[in-house]
Amino acid sequence: MKEIQMVDLKGQYENIKPEINQAILDVIESTAFINGPQVKSFAQELAAFLNVKHVIPCANGTDALQIALMALGLKPGDEVITPNFTFIATIEVIALLGLVPVLVDVNPNTFNIDPSEIEKAITPRTKAIIPVHLFGQSSEMERIISIAAEKDIFVVEDNAQALGAEYTFKNGRKSMAGTMGHIGCTSFFPSKNLGTYGDGGAIFTNNDQLAESMRMITNHGSKVKYYHETIGVNSRLDTLHAAILNIKLKHLNDYNASRQKVAMYYDKELGAISGLQIPTRSADFSTHIFHQYTLIVKDRNELKEYLHSKGIPAMVYYPVAFHHQKAFSHFSQRQNSFPVTEYLCKHVISLPMHTEMDAEQLQYITSTIKTFF
User: How confident is the model at residue 283 (pLDDT cuts 50, 70, 90)?
Assistant: First the structure.
């Protein structure tokens, strides 16, 4: 049996090696390393894949979130509601811009932001909500959009982990995760379902004005070289990364299907184990593309150590709630506790999940877990 990895980037590369190598060579021979034609073509292809009007590539997913908030014209002291259970970038950019992160608890089954908690947290200073589509499935966007519209609040989707997930509204209309709010953001970090060989990100919107603003912000606040209309940043997707993403985007549906197949095997083998909860699907409104396959386990740390002793990697996303993080200790929280987030931080564990997993590896992982229990 080949070595088990959390993410097998080498194996994935080997399967598309000729395409990737040629794409990289084409960029090197052209020497158009910044804003080469592959960047524009990737933006167009991704817009078509998502059925969204505008895609603005940028340097990474964190920049995507920051640029989105900058484009909304928020002012220091404005409040932004976001889940307590997420990666730091979501909350970090809020604080970085002088805004106030208002943390709320999450759904105990899907791990996504709880709309009921959003409603409780809204004040006259609330200007935006950032739902995070965690681990591969969308938050309850229909309800979130309704709450935001009633209060005239912006919605910025953090879609770094659910690119390719599909959302179904109650009337049957379908949208891709990341395209339902005012702005959507994603990351192309190598381990993502659509990942490049370095850092990369993108922002999506159907709003022409916001698109124009975000394009300027990514380019030092400029539409015409050396003429700057607003304060911006330098955040570009390198041409080499765009060329790689152009190839991998063609395979994304197959990659997501492979992950779903792995998840189905895990479900079948682990679903009946007492003391272990497999991932909940929101099948009535969102598909799940399994950026992570995350369990809830009472004896999480013991299981993690046991798996590692058997050559099986496992990760904890995420071990510390943000109201306990030193960096955010100066932000007061109106809620005294986050019971779901606190519980998840102590009991979640993610199993290996990628496109190159084989039957022998899956059988070994699941049989090892069964032996532990």
Answer: confident
Q: How far does CA 49 lie from the centroid of its chain?
A: 17
- Which H/E stretch holds residue 208? helix 208-218
Mean pLDDT of 26-49: 98
Long-range contacts of 114-122 (CB under 8 A, 24+ apart): 114/340, 115/140, 115/143, 115/144, 115/147, 118/81, 118/144, 118/147, 119/147, 121/81, 121/334, 121/335, 122/81, 122/147, 122/151, 122/153
Is pLDDT above 90 for 329? no
Amino acid at 165: A
Which tokens in the block code for residue 335?
A: 């809620």
Buried-state track 226-248, b at ≥16 Cβ within 10 A, e below 16: eeeeeebbebbbbbbbbbbbbbb
d(CA 193, CA 260): 12
Please, which residues have CB within 8 angstroms of residue 31's CB and are 6 or more apart in sequence?
none
The per-residue pLDDT of the chain, averaged, comes to 96
Residue type (1 letter), 59: A
| Beta strand ranges found along 190-291 (DSSP E) | 201-205, 222-224, 227-228, 276-277
Task: Enter the pTM of the model.
Answer: 0.96
Largest CA distance in the chain: 65
In the chain, the percentage of residues whose pLDDT exceeds 90 is 95
CA distance 338 to 176: 30
Please spell the DSSP secondary structure of 256-268, one letter per residue. Answer: HHHHHHHHHHHHH
140: CB partners within 8 A, 6+ apart: 112, 115, 282, 285
Cα angle 227-221-69, degrees, rounded to a multiple of 5: 165
CA separation for the pair 187, 202 (Å, rounded): 7
Of how many residues is the chain composed?
373
Contacts of 348 (CB under 8 A, 6+ apart): 111, 294, 295, 296, 297, 300, 316, 317, 318
- Cβ 201 vs Cβ 64: under 8 Å: yes
Do residues 288 and 260 make contact, with C-beta atoms less than 8 angstroms apart? yes
